[in-house]
Amino acid sequence: MPRRLAFANDNTGGAATEVLFAPKSFFTTIKGTKTTLVAPGDSVVIDGSHVFAPNPDNPPDDYGFIKLETEQDITELMAEAQGENGGKSFKLSLKAFLVGQDKITAEQARMLKNELGIGMVRSIDKDPNTGLPVYWQLGNEDLLCYVIPGWGTGAGPAGKKGFPVTIEVSSNCPIQFYEGTITYLTVAP
After folding, report:
1. What b/e string do you get for 88-123 counting C-beta neighbours within 10 Å, with b at 16 or more?
2. Which residue, among 100, 99, 98, has the nearest Cα to 167 in the 3D structure?
3. What is the pLDDT along the chain (189 residues), one digit of tens a residue?
4. Number of neighbouring beta carbons within 10 Å of residue 187
5. Mind listing the pLDDT tens digit for each residue in 56-78?
6. Residue 33: phi, psi to the nearest 5?
C-alpha cells in the first residue's frame, strides 16, 4: 500500500488586497510594540489600539485609516536587512497596485505623496488561535513610513492603467503585528 504524505501547513504567498495608511496628523496616540513580554513573539506585537483624533470634516467621527483597494496577486511586503554589521535594521517595502485612472484615486495619490504615517496590510491568513484577520504594520511613532505613488498606462493590450504604490520604512523588526482595532476613515456625504 502506498504511503500517504502528511499535509504541511498552508503557506500561500502574497497579501490581501486591503492596504491601509493614515498620516501622523490623524492620530492622537500611536502605540508601540509591547514592552512587557509574556509570550514568545510579544516583542513584535503592537501594544493595543491606535487612537485617532476627531475629524472636524465629519463630526462626530474620528479620523481613521484610508483604505486603498489594491490589485490581487500584486500586493507584496518585503523586509530586507540593511546597514553595517552590529548596526543592522530592516527596510520594509510594501508594493501594491491601484487599478484605474479615475480622478479620486489620482487625487488620493497626490495628497499622500509627501505624508509620513502608519501603514498596514492584511495577511491572506487568519490568526490560528482567534480566527481574526492578521494585520502587519509599517512604521511606528519614531520611524514613520512614507508613500511613493506613481501612475502608468500599462503596455499593450494586456497592460493595466493604474497607480503603482510603494510604502517604505526602516524598522528594527522585520514585521510588526497589529492586533488592535482597525478604524476606517469615513467620508462625509
Report:
1. ebbebbbbbbbbeeeeebeebbeebeebebbbbbbb
2. 98
3. 555 555 556 666 767 788 999 999 999 999 999 999 999 999 999 999 999 999 998 888 899 999 887 887 788 899 999 999 999 999 999 999 888 788 988 888 898 898 999 999 998 888 888 899 999 999 999 999 999 999 888 776 767 888 899 999 999 999 999 999 999 998 754
4. 10
5. 988 888 999 998 878 877 888 99
6. -70, 160
* Entry field: residues in the chain: 189
Q: What is the dihedral of CA 58, 167, 13, 71, to 10 degrees?
A: 60
Q: 130 burial class (0-12, 13-18, 19+ CB within 10 angstroms)?
A: exposed
H-helix or E-strand spanning residue 113: none
Tell me how crowded residue 175 is: count the other CB atoms within 10 A of its CB.
16
Q: Using an 8 Å Cβ cutoff, are 152 and 161 in contact?
A: yes
Residue of 114, 137, 170, 110 whose CA lies nearest to 19: 137
CB-based contact 26:53 (threshold 8 Å): yes
Cell numbers that stand for 28 in this block: 492622537
Residue that has been written with the C-alpha cell 476627531 in this structure? 54
